[in-house]
Amino acid sequence: MDDDVTVLPPFDVTRAAIDQLGALGGCVLIDVRDGGCCGSTYVFEALATDAVPAGAQRYGCPGAWLAVGPGAAAVLDGATLDYAARLKPPRFRVLRNPNTAYVCACRRSFGKPWPGPRQPGCRSYEPMPWDDDYDPPAAWKRQTGYGADTT
Fold first, then answer.
1. Structural domains of the chain sorted by starting position, each given as residue range(s) with its CATH number in brackets
2. pTM here?
3. CA pair distance 98, 78, nearest whole angstrom
4. Where do the DSSP E strands lie in the chain?
5. pLDDT band for position 102 (50/70/90)?
6. Span 69-85, mean pLDDT?
7. Are 3 and 62 in contact (CB under 8 A)?
8. Fewer CB within 10 Å, N side or C side of the chain?
């Protein structure tokens, strides 16, 4: 893909999300994996603009690229990607997704009906992978096993 061309995704991206893409070095991958309270969860990864994985589509403009993995591409059409700096932890989130009938309260998991608070698979306080400064609440760490050494 030509780096000086703007390619619009089939979903909305807020100004806050575009600004955060630029602040992270210009490229973030969004995809979907199994997990979370409702069965499927959005995952994000900061990338170098030349490190977009095979099978991912790249949208945006110079300085603010969004790579969309195949799992996310299947469910994001018509949704809105946002970044909320005021949330704890600050994070990207998918709002108003017409393709996911069931969504957990923190908007990180979707697919099945939300089973309620304090689930072991909860991702509500999980920091973005590049956020080294945020320390989740101790109760949430105990509930989910976050940060426990599994080796």
1. 12-144 (2.60.300.12)
2. 0.88
3. 7
4. 12-13, 27-34, 39-46, 57-61, 64-68, 80-84, 91-95, 109-111
5. very high
6. 95
7. yes
8. C
